[in-house]
Amino acid sequence: MGMVLELKLRKVGNSVGVVLPKEALARLDARDGDTIVLTEAPDRSFRLAPDKAEFARQMKAAEQIIRRYRNALRELAK
Questions:
Q1: How far apart are CA 29 and CA 4, in angstroms?
Q2: Which residues are CB-neighbours of 31 under 8 A, at least 6 positions away?
Q3: Is the pTM above the cut of 0.70?
Q4: Cβ partners under 8 Å of residue 19, min gap 6
Q5: From the centroid of its chain, how far is CA 59?
Q6: % of the chain with per-residue pLDDT over 70
Q7: DSSP state, 8?
Q8: Taking burial as the number of CB atoms within 10 A of a residue's CB, which of 1, 3, 54, 62 is the most buried?
Q9: Structural domains of the chain, count
């Protein structure tokens, strides 16, 4: 199993923000002001990743494939 970190939720104006520990920021290669993406996996877990153009392109392609082959993937998952 990889790194497990406890994240704190903090009120920021009318929203709630997540505080990322320095270890998480280092692994994401992210800094204050950077954008990261949060994606949901089929098992309803979440993944944080740097907002890189290649990652976004890959996710868009994966979503198109999932939509196109939704029924076949559902049958395979049984």
A1: 17
A2: 25
A3: no
A4: 7, 8, 9, 10
A5: 10
A6: 95
A7: E
A8: 62
A9: 1
| Rounded distance between C-alpha atoms, residue 27 and residue 35, angstroms | 14
Backbone phi, then psi, for 20, in 5-degree steps? -95, 125
55 falls within a domain: yes
Domain presence at residue 63: yes
HEC profile of 11-71: EECCEEEEECCHHHHHHHCCCCCCCEEEEECCCCCEEEEECCHHHHHHHHHHHHHHHHCHH
Enclosing domain of residue 26: 8-35+51-76
Q: Residue written as tokens 């949060």?
A: 38
For position 43, what pLDDT does the model report? 92
Token pair for 75: 């049958």
